[in-house]
Amino acid sequence: MIKIPLKIAKEVENYCNKRGLNDKTKNEITAKVEHFYNKSLYDSEEAAGVVAAQSLSEPATQMTMRTYHFAGTAGIQVTLGLPRLIEIYDAKKEPDTPSMTIYLENAYSNEKKAIEIAQKIKEVKLRDFVISNVIDLINLTVSCHLDTPKLKKFGIDIEKLAKHIKIKNVDSELRGKELIITSKKTENVNLHKLKYKLLETHIKGVKNISHVIVSKELGDEWIISTLGSNLKKILEMEGVDTIRTICNNPFEIYDVLGLEAARNSIIRESVNTIEEQGLGVDIRYVSMLADLMTFNGMIRGIGRYGIAGNKKSVLARMSFEETKKHMIAAAIEGTKDPLRGHVENILMNQVIPMGTGAFKLVGRMPGPVGKTEKAPVKEKKEKPKADKKEEKKEPVKKKAEPTKTKEKPKKEAKKTKEPAKKVAKKKK
To answer: Which of 43, 56, 111, 148 has the fewest CB neighbours in a 10 Å radius?
Structure first.
C-alpha cells in the first residue's frame, strides 16, 4: 500500500476536524481514501506519457492566442495564454515579457520603504535626463542638453555623469548643462549609432528592469512588480526576501539557484498560465513534463533541438520533424533501431511495448478432455475418416500380392525336382 500524498492527507484531516469526528472514524476515512488512491494509480507499463501529452495539449487548444495581464495601475503587460505556454515548453532563453515579483522582509514591508527600494531597483538611462540632442557631422560630436533638476531628484551628481559613459573610442566632456561626446576615429564613424549607444547608457539602478510598480496584497503586504528581470542583482539588495522572490525566466533561475529551482519554476509558470485561462490540468502531468525537460542536468525544450530531436530511435525522430535528414544520416552511419518505443513499433505495424504488449504471456496447455457429452462426438467424426483411408490402401496391397505368389511356386518346384534326380541315380 502506498501512502497518500501530504496534500490529500491534509484535506482529509481538515474534513474530519470541521465535522468533529473521533479518532476511530478518522482512521476509517483515511483507510478508505488510501484504498481509493491506490486503486487510481497507474498500472505497470501503462502509457502515462501519452496520457500526459493529451491532457496538456487538449486544454492548450482552448487558450487564446494573444493574452496580456496588466499588473498594477501603470499597465505592465505580461504575455500569457498559448504564446506563454509555447515559451515555457520550447525552453526559450529570453521571454518576450520578462518580469519579477519581489517580496520584502517584514522590517521593509511598508509603503515608504517599498517605494525607496523600488526607486533603487528601476534602471535609469541617460535618455531619461536628456532634453534634446544634436549631431555635429563636421566635428564628429554628439551633444546632449541635460535636465539638471531631474538629475538632482534622482541623487545623481552632474559632474560625475561623464564617468558613467563607457563607450570605446570616444571622449566625454561636460560643458555647463551639456554633455559632449567626441569620436576619436575620423573615418567610417556612424554618429547615429553612437548617439543610440550614448542614450542607452546605464546610469543608476538594476540593469534590464525598465518598469517598477509597488502594490499592496490582500494580507497587508507590500510587493514590487517589475518589467524586466535580473534575479542575481535583486537578491543581493538589502530588504529583499530572498526565499519568496521569483522571476518568470527558468533559465535565469537555473543560473542563480540551480536545476531543482528551475524545474519548480517550469511547473509554477505552466500551472499559473493554464489556470489563468480558467482551465484545469492535474499538476502531476505538468511535473512529469518538467522532469523530462530537466532530468539530464539542463533545461531542454520539446522540439527538434530538444527532447524529440535527441531520441535514440531513428524512426521516432523521423516521425516528428526533418524526416529526410534523419533517414540519410541513419543510412550513412548504418544506425540500427532497437524498436523499444511505441512510435517506432506503430510505424512497423507491430504491437507496442506498453500495457499488455509489454509482457510475454506464458501459459499451461489444457490436459486431455474428460468424459463429457462432446467427447464421443469428436471420436465418431474421426473414425469414418480413418476407415476410408484403410479402404483405399487395401486394394493396392491386394494387387501387389499375386506377383509375390507367382514367384514362390517356381522356387518350390526347383527344390522338388532336385531330390527326384538323386533318387533315380541311386536305383541305377
So the answer is: 43
Residue 137: phi and psi, rounded to 5, are -75, -25
Angle subtended at Cα 260 by Cα 259 and Cα 264, rounded to the nearest 5 degrees: 115
Q: For the whole prediction, is pTM greater than 0.85?
A: no
**Calpha distance 28→12 (Å, rounded):** 11
pLDDT tens-digit series, residues 115-128: 889 888 988 888 88
Tell me the C-alpha distance between 241 and 221, whole Å: 12
- Cα separation, 231 vs 101, in Å, equals 10
The pLDDT tens digits for 157-180 are 777 777 777 778 787 778 778 888
The secondary structure element, H or E, covering residue 68 is strand 67-71
Q: What phi and psi values does residue 101 have, to the nearest 5 degrees?
A: -120, 110
127, 200 Cβ separation under 8 angstroms:
yes
**H helix intervals, 48-140:** 48-60, 82-89, 111-121
Residue 347, CA distances (Å) to 8, 319, 353 in order: 41, 9, 13
Half-sphere exposure of 256 (CA within 13 A, CB side): 19
- pLDDT of 241 above 60: yes
